[in-house]
Amino acid sequence: MAQQRITVIPGDGIGPSIIDSAIQILDKVGCDFEYDYADAGITALEKDGELLPARTLELIEQNKVTLKGPLTTPVGEGFTSINVSLRKQFKLYSNVRPVLSFKGTQARYENIDIITVRENTEGMYSGLGQVVSEDGSEAQAMSKITREGAERIVTFAYEMARREGRKKVTAVHKANILKSTSGLFLKVAREVGERYPDIESAEMIVDNCCMQLVMNPHQFDVIVTTNLFGDILSDLCAGLVGGLGMAPGANIGSDCAIFEAVHGSAPDIAGKNLANPTSVILASVQMLEYLNMGDKAEKIRSALKDVIETGDRTTRDLGGEHGTTDFTAAMLERL
């Protein structure tokens, strides 16, 4: 069997150091991957004069599986979000953001285990029809939902729920006000739900969902929703388990996937050996599950659980006093 090649984008700011941590852990657990390194973001802009060089796109296309650190998109006009560009280019229609409680974090809740499945290419977030009037007094953007896009994402959520033995899928919408777009999404979600009688189907208006997540998060299992709502809800869910440092993300298409830390590049602590690599370690766990290497994924997850629970060499955001390299060493010892 040929070795699995992985495209690795170290990213900006703290990206290279946390990606390095994840790679050491993958090697330690015996994954035997071949890595092709590629640049994107500010790093690529400085080296090649573009945010997403052609070579990087070629490697993503060629290897089909990518592990990515946080990227910085320069603020201001003329720069499109790199993440949005990648999702469109490779038709990565599904964004999967699991949150899981680990004892020993500063989180307010215990026993949280929620997956947000967010449609990644349509809706308000896709940047369609953005115009600002010449005098700057008026701005417009367009939201477009297709039946095909809605059906694809909701089916993905139910299939994943079934595969992982999950009990319930909640479709989150705003169909009471956005009767056209959110209305179509909800209609399709109901139709798809009927095909999965073994899974409980629920629906909830997005504002109520935010309140319910804060008051009683344990009622949720899998949440499926449109692009903008999913972006907001998945960050809220991360807040339930200790913040974005604990939350990984996967962008999955029909034959290509990108796994990433969902937090930013934290330039203020870059190069200081302070960053918590948990988000990208968990993203690599998602990657292993995608590659049907669940046994190795489980080994990494339980080592991580033990490091955080015992507070052995944890980073400051986890209440410890250590840095990225010490945290990584604690992980490697357990593996």
From TrEMBL:
Belongs to the isocitrate and isopropylmalate dehydrogenases family. Transmembrane segments: none annotated. Pfam families: Iso_dh. It comes from the Bacteria. Keywords: Oxidoreductase. This is Isocitrate dehydrogenase. GO terms for biological process: isocitrate metabolic process; tricarboxylic acid cycle. Residues 5-331 form the Isopropylmalate dehydrogenase-like domain. It is an enzyme of class 1 (oxidoreductase). It comes from Neptunicella marina. InterPro entries: IsoCit/isopropylmalate_DH_CS, IsoPropMal-DH-like_dom. GO terms for molecular function: isocitrate dehydrogenase (NAD+) activity; magnesium ion binding; NAD binding. Its EC number is 1.1.1.41.
